[in-house]
Structures are given as structure tokens and as C-alpha cells.
Design brief:
A: 45% strand; B: 111 residues; 35% strand
Chain lengths: 147, 111
């Protein structure tokens, strides 16, 4: 299956530890990821490799649900997880100090589901939608932590 | 496996009005059989996004004059009003959306 990648980076006026703590709580993702409706069954409660949770994502009216698993948790530098079922993808938040602030980069690697692309969009349009979403996620994260 | 649902059961909480100037004020209607524990739903969500608040019977006051959430129970519906102020317009919108998601999906978990 073909894969795609979306990436976006920004400086957030907050210490890296604060940014890490915000993104590494799985349930909190509904506050800054557009379309993410629900996170539940987070086990165990704290971020660590092997932690799992279930998600529901509203993709332009279609509900996509599945399971995720944390694969890397290195406070305050990296938080990484995979969506295992649903639409397989790997999400990596990299947080680097930038003076008193944090430089945050989100990389999302995903499989391009041929059936969805065939039905709803061409592959370049689908990739642009995901790139726009990555930009929006980082922008929302910045908003939640700064203002 | 991708599970697709066109009519999501969370669609029982509806935003019926939205007004925005310096503050954001929204009204929602929740259709339910039994009134859920709104204080717990909203309080835990505000804790999650690091917004300090004071729960009181029938409403929650956000600290530092950042607004409030009120709810009024009728026979089949709950009327909910939220007012957010003192944040950027973008943050007010994100907080309102987060609270709306919580209202929709906690209803599912309590049934």
C-alpha cells in the first residue's frame, strides 16, 4: 500500500516539559486534533511504550475508529504512537528547546487507503488534506498552550 | 479494520446558537433519557485541558473570570450554556469544541 507523510513545525512559547506533558496525555488529543471525536480505554493511564487506547475520528462525516499504541515516550523530547487498526499511521511529536521556548515538530506517516482515495479524493488532494491537518494540529497546540 | 458509521450516536447533543464578540457564548441542547452527571463531565474535561474552575450546583465557574458553564434540566432535554472570555478567540473556539465533544461522548459511555 502506498504511504504518505505530513509534517509541520512551530515554536511554542512554553517550556518543552509543558508541551510534552500536554501531548503525551492521550485523552487530551481531542482538544487540539480536528475531527478526533473521542479517546477512551487508555491503559495504563500514564504515557509509556505499550500504552494503548481506542480512538474515533470523524473524517468529513465518516467515523473511523481503531486502536493506538504508544511506541516511544521520552520526556520531554519525543512522544510517538501508532494507530494500529483503523487507518495505520505513525505519529511523532519531537520537542526541542529553543531558548525558553519549545520547537515542536509533528511527523505523521500513513498508509494511503486506496478505496477511500478512489471514492472521495485523488491522492494529491488526500495528501494535501493531511498536510493541512498537521499544520492545524500544531497551530491548535500552540493556541491551547500560549493564549 | 476501518469501521464507518454515517449516523453517529454522539449526534444527540446539538449546538443551537453561537455568539462571538470579546467572549464566546454557545447554547446546546442534549437529548437524553436520564440526565448525566454534567458537573463531572465538564469538570474532568476542564481539568484535562488545564483550566482551573469551581464547580457549583447547576453550573461551573471558570476561575479568573474566564467564563462559565450552566445546565438546566427539562423532561427530555438538557439546555446547556457556555460562556468563555479572556482567552484568544481561537482558544475560546477550541475549548468550546472540546467541551462539546465531551458532552457528546460521555453520554455514550454512561448508557
Amino acid at each position: 500500500m502506498p504511504t504518505g507523510k505530513a509534517s509541520h513545525s512551530a515554536t511554542i512559547s512554553a517550556p518543552p516539559q509543558k508541551v510534552y506533558d500536554y501531548v503525551a496525555e492521550a485523552s487530551r488529543a481531542t482538544s487540539f486534533i480536528p475531527g478526533l471525536s473521542r479517546i477512551h480505554n487508555v491503559q495504563p493511564a500514564t504515557a509509556q511504550p505499550g500504552q494503548t487506547w481506542e480512538y474515533e475520528f470523524d473524517w468529513f462525516g465518516l467515523v473511523v475508529s481503531g486502536n493506538s499504541k504508544c511506541i516511544r515516550s521520552e520526556r520531554p523530547r519525543v512522544f510517538e504512537f501508532q494507530t494500529i487498526t483503523g487507518n495505520p499511521s505513525t505519529w511523532t511529536y519531537k520537542i526541542e528547546p529553543n531558548g525558553a521556548n519549545a520547537q515542536v515538530t509533528l511527523d505523521v506517516q500513513y498508509e494511503i487507503p486506496g478505496n477511500v482515495v478512489a471514492r472521495f479524493a485523488s491522492q494529491p488532494v488526500f495528501e494535501k488534506m493531511n498536510q493541512d491537518r498537521a499544520r492545524e494540529i500544531i497551530s491548535n497546540l500552540k493556541t491551547m498552550l500560549e493564549s | 479494520m476501518i469501521r464507518l458509521r454515517f449516523f453517529h450516536p454522539g449526534r444527540r447533543v446539538w449546538r443551537v446558537s453561537r455568539r462571538s464578540d470579546d467572549a464566546l457564548e454557545e447554547s446546546w441542547v442534549a437529548f437524553r433519557r436520564v440526565p448525566p452527571h454534567w458537573e463531572k463531565i465538564f469538570s474532568s474535561t476542564l481539568d484535562l485541558i488545564w483550566l482551573s474552575h469551581t464547580p457549583q450546583p447547576g453550573h461551573i465557574q471558570l476561575n479568573d473570570e474566564r467564563g462559565f458553564i450552566t445546565w438546566h434540566e427539562c423532561r427530555w432535554v438538557t439546555r446547556i450554556t457556555i460562556r468563555l472570555q479572556g482567552f484568544s478567540a481561537a482558544k475560546q473556539s477550541l475549548v468550546a469544541t472540546t467541551l462539546l465533544k465531551a458532552a457528546r461522548f460521555h453520554l455514550l459511555e454512561e448508557e
